[in-house]
Write a structure and sequence with these properties.
The chain contains 4 helices and 8 strands. By secondary structure, it is an alpha+beta fold. The chain has one domain.
């Protein structure tokens, strides 16, 4: 295998790495809308805050669940009451297979003004590219995000994994093509009909080709 073929294999492996992150982001669960709390009439107290992780083929999705409590107005009865309610907030999405190679951290709030180009680029790098239905009914808040920030250990692992797969497939196809051309009396390199140990078209020596 020459240098050009190796570079092509690495290029295919890079494309497969990016596609694995993209399809992993598609498989990740949508960010669920915040549970609308009752109308609080006193300051809400945080009783518990925990992280929930959901994993699948090609993705790891993390959300934060917060349990609040306090005095509120019951929406149905219209009377003040005391109780607890919970809210969920997406934290991050990791995508890639077999190793997670990209991450997107969900922003808490809008961090860039509409005219701040550098801020928008930094936001896309940290928070990923939003896509899907709008989240929580707020324009511009998507329910899914495609990660842009690489996880270098995962990128390296996926590149090695996919490069090995591409090289094995390429070598297998080359061996099958070589045998088929030999059976048909063709040159293994250029498929020119041959009747001597050396191809008259490309000059390759058939015996040396078989030995190599």
């Amino acid at each position: 295998m020459n240098r050009r073929q190796f570079l092509l294999s690495v290029g295919f492996a890079t494309a497969l790495c990016v596609l694995s992150a993209f399809f992993g982001a598609l498989r990740a669960p949508r960010a669920q809308p915040i549970t609308l709390p009752p109308f609080a009439v006193s300051k809400s107290k945080v009783h518990n805050r925990s992280l929930e992780t959901q994993s699948g083929i090609g993705f790891t999705f993390t959300r934060e669940r917060t349990e609040l409590g306090g005095m509120y107005i019951d929406r149905q009865a219209g009377l003040p009451s005391w109780g607890r309610w919970s809210q969920t907030r997406p934290i991050e999405t990791r995508a890639g297979w077999p190793f997670r190679c990209a991450i997107a951290s969900w922003p808490r709030r809008r961090t860039a003004e509409p005219s701040d180009l550098i801020g928008h680029v930094r936001s896309l790098w940290e928070s990923g590219i939003p896509f899907g239905a709008e989240e929580w009914g707020i324009p511009g808040r998507s329910s899914r995000r495609f990660p842009m920030r690489p996880i270098w250990t995962g990128v390296l692992g996926n590149l090695v994994f996919y490069t090995c797969i591409v090289l094995v497939i390429a070598y297998s196809l080359g061996a099958v093509r070589f045998r088929l051309r030999r059976r048909r009396g063709l040159c293994p390199r250029c498929a020119y009909p041959i009747s001597s140990p050396r191809c008259p078209e490309c000059g390759v020596h058939i015996e040396d080709r078989i030995a190599g």
